[in-house]
Amino acid sequence: MVVGAFPLRDKVAIVTGGGSGINLAFVVLAVSSGAKCLIADLKLSPEAESILQKNPGKIAFQNCDVASWEDLEALPSAVISAFGKDTIPDIYIAGAGVFEPKWSNFFNDSETDFYRTMKINAEHPIKLTRIAMRTSLRANKPCVVVVVASTAGINGTYGAALYCASKHAVVGFVKSMAPADEEENVKIVAVLPGVVDTPLWTGAEAKDVAAQFSFQAEGAITADEVARTMKDAIEQSQLERSPAKRSLPYGDVRPNEDDIEEQS
Ligand SMILES: NC(=O)c1ccc[n+]([C@@H]2O[C@H](COP(=O)([O-])OP(=O)(O)OC[C@H]3O[C@@H](n4cnc5c(N)ncnc54)[C@H](O)[C@@H]3O)[C@@H](O)[C@H]2O)c1
């Protein structure tokens, strides 16, 4: 049996990265559709803080670093603390993500043990899906997982190779997991937005990256548009594919001088 139509009304969602941007827009839309949301994020933006204050009992916050599996494993219990005994999440949004931060990208190569971008963008959606599946199977109830991927999950961009690799990884994962809908009553889908006008580009820490990739709000879609697609992906049994508006520009990035071997 497949999950089928899954209205947001009376559902409980865990939303990683819900403290800002696309995932915050989804939280607002979900709550206005009758759902409750646990935001799992490192922090809340001022906008998210104010929305949380205005929606007591409907939105809760759990401090969570999605790179930590311990933090991810704690989320179903955090839902119980927030919304009551026996509450089992129905929806899991793997939305937290980073875009080519200075501290984790291919060309700066400042990391010594692993790429944190891969932990955040690629490993966390996979682990969260496993947690979702385990929690739902134990409770014998269906659930939906939405992975916020990107057109960078199907296109390559030289200047954002690590980001593209991380998003390709989750697109491959979601494709592989399609049978879980019928096999386990767990529907796993991805949304692949193009460029979206969010703090990922407009935030204080995003100035360099916005200049490097020539971000322009006029060419971008809005977080609300992506949130509506996420809602449709959850609620509808058959989702029509909508074309992405624009994928990442090339990006003005070159390898560090030290990395370029002298050509003799
Ligand atoms: N903005 C775009 O152009 C665009 C396009 C396609 C896909 N996406 C994807 O959409 C998702 C949301 O991005 P956004 O544009 O809303 O950006 P955003 O910066 O507004 O939101 C990202 C959120 O993720 C959180 N986050 C980052 N690292 C985390 C960690 N280790 N643990 C917990 N939370 C963490 C941040 O605190 C923030 O609240 C990301 O996965 C991003 O890759 C964005």
Automatic annotation (TrEMBL):
Residues 233-264 are annotated as: Disordered. It comes from the Eukaryota. InterPro entries: NAD(P)-bd_dom_sf, Sc_DH/Rdtase_CS, SDR_fam. GO terms for cellular component: cytoplasm. Gene3D superfamilies: NAD(P)-binding Rossmann-like Domain. One of its GO terms (molecular function) is oxidoreductase activity, acting on the CH-OH group of donors, NAD or NADP as acceptor. Keywords: NADP, Oxidoreductase. Pfam families: adh_short (PF00106). Belongs to the short-chain dehydrogenases/reductases (SDR) family. This is 15-hydroxyprostaglandin dehydrogenase.
